Amino acid sequence: MFSTQAVLLKRGEAVVKNLINKIDHDDIDKVVIVAAVLAVIMAVFIPIVMVMLFQEIFFFDREQWLLSRPDLSYIVVIASFLIVPLAGITYFFTKKVWYKRHPLIGGGFVLLLMLLAFPVAYMGMMHYYYMDDEGFTYSPIASLEEEFFPWKDAEEVIVITSEGDSVASYEAIEFVFSGGKRFELEANHEVFTYRQRIFRVIEENGGEVVR
Predict the structure, then answer these.
(1) What are the TM regions of this chain, as residue ranges (predicted)?
(2) Fewer Cβ neighbours under 10 Å: the N or C end of the chain?
(3) What stretch(es) of the chain map to CATH 2.40.50?
């Protein structure tokens, strides 16, 4: 029985070695090029949908009346896709090093660089904020921990506008909480839609709306 297992094990090792020996630098080059091109194409279309779906699925709650994310969230996720072509460029710039060794070493190197895309993308998808009747919750880009600020601690909300040809338009709103903590939110669709509710909840809790 043991001799049969040993024979099978040796045959398996021989098959694996044979497959490894068939791999050459051209195979690795093709894989790197295809992965880099696909990543660039996906960086144009995928990040916006990916961020919105991820946050709606994992962070949406019926008690919230606003769930949104800063533009930086999308930028970081797009950057995560671009890590793949950058890893490919690094691979080809260091090609002379890999040609002196087995092609799998160069492939492993570029794979490790490409895998950095996953934690970077996750960091971007974890960057969001939401509002409910209790307060304002913010998840910073460099942290996986939420920060919660009750509305009673909001001292004022500052409306930032830009002067157009005929009327002023919203650019952002800035929360100022007790202790000097400040958050500036771009006037995206969600913030613009709920701006009156935001102003009202600030005033109901003793804060001031500065226009």
Answers:
(1) 31-54, 74-93, 105-130
(2) N
(3) 146-209
CATH number corresponding to 146-209: 2.40.50
- For residue 131 the two structure tokens come to 């509002």
Residue 146 class from Cβ within 10 Å (0-12 exposed, 13-18 middle, 19+ buried)?
A: middle
* Residue 173 backbone dihedrals phi, psi, to 5 degrees: -125, 150
Strand partners, 128: 139
**pLDDT tens, residue by residue, 53-101:** 999 999 888 889 999 999 999 999 999 999 999 999 988 888 777 777 7
Q: Could you tell me where the beta strands, DSSP code E, fall in 20-117?
A: 64-68
Give the length of the chain: 211
State the pLDDT confidence band at 144, using cuts at 50, 70 and 90.
confident
Which tens digits make up the pLDDT trace of 93-116?
Answer: 887 777 777 777 778 888 899 999
Local structure of 93: helix, strand or coil? helix
- Residues facing 209 on adjacent strands: 157
